[in-house]
Protein backbone atom coordinates (compact mmCIF):
# COMPACT_ATOMS: atom_id res chain seq x y z
CA UNK A 1 0.00 0.00 0.00
CA UNK A 2 3.05 2.29 -0.04
CA UNK A 3 3.25 2.68 -3.80
CA UNK A 4 1.89 5.59 -5.78
CA UNK A 5 -1.22 5.50 -7.89
CA UNK A 6 -0.84 3.98 -11.35
CA UNK A 7 -0.80 6.20 -14.39
CA UNK A 8 -2.85 4.11 -16.84
CA UNK A 9 -5.20 6.13 -18.99
CA UNK A 10 -8.97 5.67 -18.91
CA UNK A 11 -10.20 2.68 -20.85
CA UNK A 12 -6.98 2.07 -22.79
CA UNK A 13 -6.27 -1.42 -21.43
CA UNK A 14 -7.70 -4.29 -23.48
CA UNK A 15 -9.46 -5.70 -20.43
CA UNK A 16 -11.46 -2.52 -19.82
CA UNK A 17 -15.18 -2.61 -20.56
CA UNK A 18 -18.20 -0.33 -20.16
CA UNK A 19 -18.03 -0.82 -16.38
CA UNK A 20 -14.28 -0.49 -15.96
CA UNK A 21 -12.45 -3.62 -14.88
CA UNK A 22 -13.85 -7.15 -15.05
CA UNK A 23 -15.45 -8.42 -11.82
CA UNK A 24 -12.88 -9.17 -9.11
CA UNK A 25 -11.87 -12.80 -8.86
CA UNK A 26 -12.45 -14.86 -5.74
CA UNK A 27 -9.16 -16.26 -4.42
CA UNK A 28 -8.60 -19.96 -5.05
CA UNK A 29 -7.28 -22.67 -2.76
CA UNK A 30 -8.68 -24.20 0.43
CA UNK A 31 -7.80 -21.38 2.81
CA UNK A 32 -8.83 -18.67 0.36
CA UNK A 33 -12.22 -20.31 -0.22
CA UNK A 34 -12.72 -20.52 3.54
CA UNK A 35 -11.78 -16.88 3.99
CA UNK A 36 -14.17 -15.83 1.22
CA UNK A 37 -17.11 -16.96 3.36
CA UNK A 38 -15.76 -16.23 6.84
CA UNK A 39 -18.37 -15.43 9.47
CA UNK A 40 -17.54 -12.22 11.39
CA UNK A 41 -17.42 -12.29 15.19
CA UNK A 42 -19.68 -9.21 15.57
CA UNK A 43 -18.07 -8.28 18.89
CA UNK A 44 -19.39 -5.75 21.41
CA UNK A 45 -23.00 -6.86 21.19
CA UNK A 46 -23.44 -7.33 17.46
CA UNK A 47 -25.62 -9.95 15.82
CA UNK A 48 -24.50 -12.04 12.84
CA UNK A 49 -26.84 -11.64 9.87
CA UNK A 50 -26.69 -14.10 6.99
CA UNK A 51 -25.66 -16.00 5.07
CA UNK A 52 -27.01 -14.50 1.88
CA UNK A 53 -25.76 -16.09 -1.36
CA UNK A 54 -24.97 -13.82 -4.29
CA UNK A 55 -25.39 -14.59 -8.00
CA UNK A 56 -21.87 -16.05 -8.12
CA UNK A 57 -22.63 -18.49 -5.30
CA UNK A 58 -20.65 -16.76 -2.54
CA UNK A 59 -22.12 -16.37 0.94
CA UNK A 60 -22.21 -12.90 2.50
CA UNK A 61 -22.56 -11.96 6.16
CA UNK A 62 -23.07 -8.78 8.10
CA UNK A 63 -22.91 -7.55 11.67
CA UNK A 64 -25.96 -5.79 13.04
CA UNK A 65 -25.85 -3.46 16.04
CA UNK A 66 -29.09 -2.08 17.44
CA UNK A 67 -29.69 0.21 20.42
CA UNK A 68 -32.35 -0.86 22.90
CA UNK A 69 -34.56 1.95 21.61
CA UNK A 70 -34.81 0.48 18.08
CA UNK A 71 -38.46 -0.19 17.26
CA UNK A 72 -40.99 0.13 14.46
CA UNK A 73 -42.88 2.76 16.45
CA UNK A 74 -39.88 5.13 16.38
CA UNK A 75 -37.70 4.28 13.36
CA UNK A 76 -34.02 5.19 13.62
CA UNK A 77 -31.37 6.15 11.10
CA UNK A 78 -29.39 3.30 9.53
CA UNK A 79 -25.63 3.66 9.09
CA UNK A 80 -23.83 1.15 6.88
CA UNK A 81 -20.10 0.77 7.68
CA UNK A 82 -17.84 -0.75 5.00
CA UNK A 83 -14.50 -2.00 6.29
CA UNK A 84 -11.13 -1.46 4.65
CA UNK A 85 -9.31 -4.02 2.51
CA UNK A 86 -7.55 -6.87 4.35
CA UNK A 87 -9.68 -5.92 7.36
CA UNK A 88 -13.18 -7.31 8.05
CA UNK A 89 -16.55 -6.30 9.47
CA UNK A 90 -15.21 -6.58 13.02
CA UNK A 91 -12.90 -3.63 12.37
CA UNK A 92 -15.87 -1.41 13.19
CA UNK A 93 -14.77 -1.82 16.83
CA UNK A 94 -11.57 0.06 15.93
CA UNK A 95 -13.69 3.13 15.27
CA UNK A 96 -15.76 4.82 17.97
CA UNK A 97 -19.04 4.54 16.06
CA UNK A 98 -20.44 2.10 18.63
CA UNK A 99 -19.89 4.69 21.37
CA UNK A 100 -22.63 6.77 19.72
CA UNK A 101 -25.02 3.89 18.99
CA UNK A 102 -27.56 4.77 21.69
CA UNK A 103 -26.96 8.50 22.10
CA UNK A 104 -26.39 10.16 18.72
CA UNK A 105 -29.02 12.56 17.41
CA UNK A 106 -29.38 11.93 13.69
CA UNK A 107 -32.74 13.63 13.37
CA UNK A 108 -34.94 10.57 13.82
CA UNK A 109 -37.75 10.32 16.37
CA UNK A 110 -35.48 8.74 18.95
CA UNK A 111 -31.82 8.86 19.95
CA UNK A 112 -29.28 6.51 18.44
CA UNK A 113 -29.00 4.63 15.16
CA UNK A 114 -28.88 1.13 13.76
CA UNK A 115 -25.42 0.12 12.54
CA UNK A 116 -24.91 -2.45 9.80
CA UNK A 117 -21.39 -3.71 9.02
CA UNK A 118 -21.34 -6.04 6.00
CA UNK A 119 -18.36 -8.31 5.36
CA UNK A 120 -16.49 -8.12 2.06
CA UNK A 121 -15.14 -11.02 -0.02
CA UNK A 122 -11.63 -12.42 -0.44
CA UNK A 123 -10.85 -11.22 -3.97
CA UNK A 124 -8.19 -9.68 -6.18
CA UNK A 125 -7.60 -5.94 -5.78
CA UNK A 126 -6.09 -3.26 -7.99
CA UNK A 127 -3.78 -2.25 -5.14
CA UNK A 128 -0.04 -2.82 -4.71
CA UNK A 129 1.13 -5.88 -2.73
CA UNK A 130 0.45 -7.04 -0.08
CA UNK A 131 -3.02 -5.58 -0.67
CA UNK A 132 -3.41 -7.04 -4.16
CA UNK A 133 -5.77 -9.64 -2.69
CA UNK A 134 -7.76 -10.19 0.48
CA UNK A 135 -11.08 -9.26 2.04
CA UNK A 136 -12.51 -6.08 0.60
CA UNK A 137 -14.89 -4.49 -1.89
CA UNK A 138 -14.86 -4.56 -5.68
CA UNK A 139 -15.07 -0.88 -6.59
CA UNK A 140 -13.27 -1.56 -9.91
CA UNK A 141 -16.18 -3.32 -11.62
CA UNK A 142 -18.60 -0.39 -11.60
CA UNK A 143 -21.83 -2.04 -12.74
CA UNK A 144 -24.00 -0.58 -9.97
CA UNK A 145 -27.08 0.18 -12.06
CA UNK A 146 -30.01 0.32 -9.57
CA UNK A 147 -32.07 -1.84 -11.94
CA UNK A 148 -29.64 -4.74 -11.55
CA UNK A 149 -28.27 -6.73 -14.51
CA UNK A 150 -28.02 -4.87 -17.83
CA UNK A 151 -27.24 -5.71 -21.45
CA UNK A 152 -25.06 -3.50 -23.66
CA UNK A 153 -24.56 -4.21 -27.35
CA UNK A 154 -25.96 -7.69 -26.79
CA UNK A 155 -23.54 -8.47 -23.96
CA UNK A 156 -25.05 -9.13 -20.50
CA UNK A 157 -23.37 -7.57 -17.45
CA UNK A 158 -24.24 -8.83 -13.99
CA UNK A 159 -24.70 -6.40 -11.14
CA UNK A 160 -21.67 -5.90 -8.91
CA UNK A 161 -22.20 -8.67 -6.33
CA UNK A 162 -20.80 -6.61 -3.44
CA UNK A 163 -23.32 -3.86 -4.18
CA UNK A 164 -26.06 -6.50 -4.43
CA UNK A 165 -25.06 -7.83 -1.01
CA UNK A 166 -25.23 -4.36 0.54
CA UNK A 167 -28.63 -3.90 -1.12
CA UNK A 168 -29.86 -7.14 0.42
CA UNK A 169 -28.74 -6.37 3.96
CA UNK A 170 -30.09 -2.81 3.81
CA UNK A 171 -33.45 -3.95 2.38
CA UNK A 172 -33.66 -6.60 5.09
CA UNK A 173 -33.36 -3.97 7.82
CA UNK A 174 -35.75 -1.56 6.12
CA UNK A 175 -38.33 -4.38 5.98
CA UNK A 176 -38.33 -4.59 9.80
CA UNK A 177 -39.90 -1.13 9.98
CA UNK A 178 -37.21 0.02 12.43
CA UNK A 179 -35.32 2.10 9.84
CA UNK A 180 -36.08 5.72 9.05
CA UNK A 181 -36.04 5.47 5.25
CA UNK A 182 -35.09 9.14 4.90
CA UNK A 183 -31.94 8.52 6.92
CA UNK A 184 -29.96 5.71 5.32
CA UNK A 185 -26.29 6.67 5.46
CA UNK A 186 -22.99 5.16 4.35
CA UNK A 187 -19.58 5.35 5.95
CA UNK A 188 -16.39 3.43 5.36
CA UNK A 189 -12.65 3.20 5.76
CA UNK A 190 -10.08 3.11 2.92
CA UNK A 191 -11.26 0.57 0.28
CA UNK A 192 -14.58 0.49 2.16
CA UNK A 193 -14.76 4.28 1.90
CA UNK A 194 -14.22 4.07 -1.86
CA UNK A 195 -17.00 1.50 -2.13
CA UNK A 196 -19.27 3.62 0.09
CA UNK A 197 -18.82 6.59 -2.23
CA UNK A 198 -19.39 4.53 -5.37
CA UNK A 199 -22.45 2.86 -3.84
CA UNK A 200 -23.92 6.16 -2.61
CA UNK A 201 -23.49 7.78 -6.02
CA UNK A 202 -25.62 4.98 -7.50
CA UNK A 203 -28.36 4.38 -4.91
CA UNK A 204 -31.13 7.02 -4.71
CA UNK A 205 -32.24 5.65 -1.33
CA UNK A 206 -28.93 6.75 0.26
CA UNK A 207 -29.33 10.12 1.94
CA UNK A 208 -25.63 10.96 2.35
CA UNK A 209 -22.24 9.47 3.15
CA UNK A 210 -19.33 10.45 5.37
CA UNK A 211 -16.16 8.39 4.88
CA UNK A 212 -12.50 8.21 5.85
CA UNK A 213 -9.43 8.01 3.58
CA UNK A 214 -10.98 6.84 0.31
CA UNK A 215 -8.94 6.08 -2.81
CA UNK A 216 -10.85 7.48 -5.78
CA UNK A 217 -13.28 4.66 -6.77
CA UNK A 218 -13.09 5.81 -10.38
CA UNK A 219 -9.33 5.42 -10.69
CA UNK A 220 -6.51 4.94 -8.16
CA UNK A 221 -3.34 2.93 -7.60
CA UNK A 222 -2.69 0.48 -10.45
CA UNK A 223 -6.21 0.45 -11.86
CA UNK A 224 -5.84 0.24 -15.67
CA UNK A 225 -9.48 1.19 -16.25
CA UNK A 226 -9.93 4.72 -14.94
CA UNK A 227 -13.37 6.14 -15.71
CA UNK A 228 -14.99 9.56 -15.48
CA UNK A 229 -18.38 9.67 -13.73
CA UNK A 230 -21.14 11.32 -15.76
CA UNK A 231 -24.90 11.77 -15.39
CA UNK A 232 -25.94 10.49 -18.83
CA UNK A 233 -25.34 7.33 -20.83
CA UNK A 234 -21.63 6.70 -21.36
CA UNK A 235 -20.20 7.40 -24.81
CA UNK A 236 -17.18 5.13 -24.36
CA UNK A 237 -15.41 2.90 -21.85
CA UNK A 238 -13.71 5.90 -20.28
CA UNK A 239 -17.04 7.11 -18.86
CA UNK A 240 -19.44 5.62 -16.31
CA UNK A 241 -22.96 6.79 -15.57
CA UNK A 242 -23.92 7.37 -11.93
CA UNK A 243 -27.54 7.37 -10.79
CA UNK A 244 -27.49 9.42 -7.59
CA UNK A 245 -25.04 12.19 -8.50
CA UNK A 246 -26.31 14.80 -6.06
CA UNK A 247 -25.88 12.72 -2.89
CA UNK A 248 -24.06 14.85 -0.25
CA UNK A 249 -20.63 13.43 0.59
CA UNK A 250 -18.06 14.12 3.30
CA UNK A 251 -14.51 12.86 2.81
CA UNK A 252 -12.07 13.03 5.72
CA UNK A 253 -8.51 12.28 4.59
CA UNK A 254 -5.00 12.69 5.91
CA UNK A 255 -2.62 15.36 4.65
CA UNK A 256 -0.04 12.57 4.67
CA UNK A 257 -1.56 9.23 3.69
CA UNK A 258 -0.54 6.04 1.93
CA UNK A 259 -0.14 5.93 -1.82
CA UNK A 260 -0.94 9.57 -2.45
CA UNK A 261 -4.56 9.26 -1.25
CA UNK A 262 -4.55 12.93 -0.24
CA UNK A 263 -3.81 14.42 -3.69
CA UNK A 264 -5.89 11.67 -5.29
CA UNK A 265 -8.77 13.03 -3.22
CA UNK A 266 -8.53 16.27 -5.20
CA UNK A 267 -9.40 14.33 -8.33
CA UNK A 268 -12.34 12.70 -6.56
CA UNK A 269 -13.52 16.10 -5.33
CA UNK A 270 -13.42 17.50 -8.88
CA UNK A 271 -15.27 14.49 -10.30
CA UNK A 272 -18.08 14.75 -7.76
CA UNK A 273 -18.50 18.47 -8.38
CA UNK A 274 -18.46 17.95 -12.15
CA UNK A 275 -21.62 15.80 -11.96
CA UNK A 276 -23.35 18.43 -9.83
CA UNK A 277 -22.68 16.78 -6.50
CA UNK A 278 -21.58 18.30 -3.22
CA UNK A 279 -18.58 17.10 -1.23
CA UNK A 280 -17.31 18.38 2.11
CA UNK A 281 -13.61 17.69 1.60
CA UNK A 282 -11.72 17.68 4.92
CA UNK A 283 -7.94 17.31 5.14
CA UNK A 284 -6.47 16.60 8.58
CA UNK A 285 -2.92 16.44 9.92
CA UNK A 286 -1.44 13.81 12.23
CA UNK A 287 -3.06 15.53 15.22
CA UNK A 288 -6.50 15.40 13.55
CA UNK A 289 -6.50 19.16 13.07
CA UNK A 290 -7.98 20.45 9.82
CA UNK A 291 -5.46 21.86 7.36
CA UNK A 292 -5.71 23.37 3.90
CA UNK A 293 -3.35 21.28 1.80
CA UNK A 294 -1.77 17.88 1.34
CA UNK A 295 1.86 17.42 2.38
CA UNK A 296 4.06 17.41 -0.71
CA UNK A 297 6.54 15.00 0.88
CA UNK A 298 3.83 12.32 0.98
CA UNK A 299 3.06 12.49 -2.74
CA UNK A 300 1.91 15.31 -5.01
CA UNK A 301 0.69 13.39 -8.05
CA UNK A 302 -3.05 12.85 -8.25
CA UNK A 303 -2.77 9.78 -10.47
CA UNK A 304 0.88 9.40 -11.46
CA UNK A 305 3.89 7.58 -10.13
CA UNK A 306 6.90 8.84 -8.23
CA UNK A 307 9.07 8.27 -5.21
CA UNK A 308 8.02 9.02 -1.65
CA UNK A 309 10.68 9.03 1.09
CA UNK A 310 10.43 6.00 3.35
CA UNK A 311 9.85 8.19 6.39
CA UNK A 312 6.87 9.88 4.75
CA UNK A 313 5.56 6.51 3.55
CA UNK A 314 5.64 5.12 7.07
CA UNK A 315 4.00 8.25 8.46
CA UNK A 316 1.25 7.98 5.85
CA UNK A 317 0.71 4.32 6.71
CA UNK A 318 0.52 5.13 10.43
CA UNK A 319 -2.07 7.83 9.80
CA UNK A 320 -4.11 5.58 7.53
CA UNK A 321 -4.55 2.65 9.93
CA UNK A 322 -6.15 4.72 12.69
CA UNK A 323 -9.75 5.92 12.48
CA UNK A 324 -10.05 9.71 13.09
CA UNK A 325 -12.07 9.41 16.29
CA UNK A 326 -12.06 13.16 16.89
CA UNK A 327 -14.04 13.55 13.65
CA UNK A 328 -16.70 10.90 14.19
CA UNK A 329 -19.13 13.34 15.84
CA UNK A 330 -18.66 15.75 12.92
CA UNK A 331 -19.31 12.94 10.44
CA UNK A 332 -22.51 12.00 12.26
CA UNK A 333 -23.58 15.64 12.32
CA UNK A 334 -23.02 15.82 8.55
CA UNK A 335 -25.35 12.86 8.13
CA UNK A 336 -27.96 14.47 10.36
CA UNK A 337 -27.87 17.65 8.27
CA UNK A 338 -28.36 15.70 5.03
CA UNK A 339 -31.40 13.40 5.21
CA UNK A 340 -33.12 12.26 2.04
CA UNK A 341 -35.16 15.13 0.60
How is this fold's topology laid out?
Elements: H1 30-36, E1 47-53, E2 59-65, E3 76-82, E4 113-118, E5 121-124, E6 133-136, E7 150-152, E8 155-157, H2 161-174, E9 179-188, H3 191-200, E10 208-212, E11 228-230, E12 239-241, E13 249-254, H4 261-274, E14 279-284, E15 290-291, H5 310-320, H6 328-337
Parallel strand pairs: 3-4, 3-9, 9-10, 10-13, 11-12, 13-14
Antiparallel strand pairs: 1-2, 2-4, 5-6, 7-8, 14-15
Could you please describe the fold and organization of this structure?
This protein is of the alpha/beta class. It is built from 6 helices and 15 strands. β5 (121-124) and β6 (133-136) form a beta hairpin. The protein starts with 29 loop residues before the first helix and ends with a helix.
Shape: globular
Q: Helix- and strand-based class?
A: alpha/beta
Instruction: Supply the number of helical segments.
Output: 6
List the strand order in the largest sheet: 1-2-4-3-9-10-13-14-15
The low-pLDDT segments are: 1-11
In short:
With 341 residues, this protein is α/β, with parallel strands linked by helices. The chain is 19% helix and 22% strand. The chain is globular and about 55 Å long.
List keywords for this structure.
single chain, 341 residues, alpha/beta, nine-stranded mixed beta sheet, two-stranded antiparallel sheet, 15 strands, globular, disordered N terminus
Amino acid sequence: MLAHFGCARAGTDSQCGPFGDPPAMIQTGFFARHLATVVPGCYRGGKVVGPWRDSAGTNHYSCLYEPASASASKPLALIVFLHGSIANADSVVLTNLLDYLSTADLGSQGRGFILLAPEGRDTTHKYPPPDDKGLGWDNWYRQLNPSGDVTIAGVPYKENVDAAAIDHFVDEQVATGKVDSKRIYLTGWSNGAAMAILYSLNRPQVASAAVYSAPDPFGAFKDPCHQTPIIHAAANNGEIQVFNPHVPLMHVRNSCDIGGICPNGLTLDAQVRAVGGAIDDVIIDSASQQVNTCEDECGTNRDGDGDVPIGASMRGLKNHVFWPKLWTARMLEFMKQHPLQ
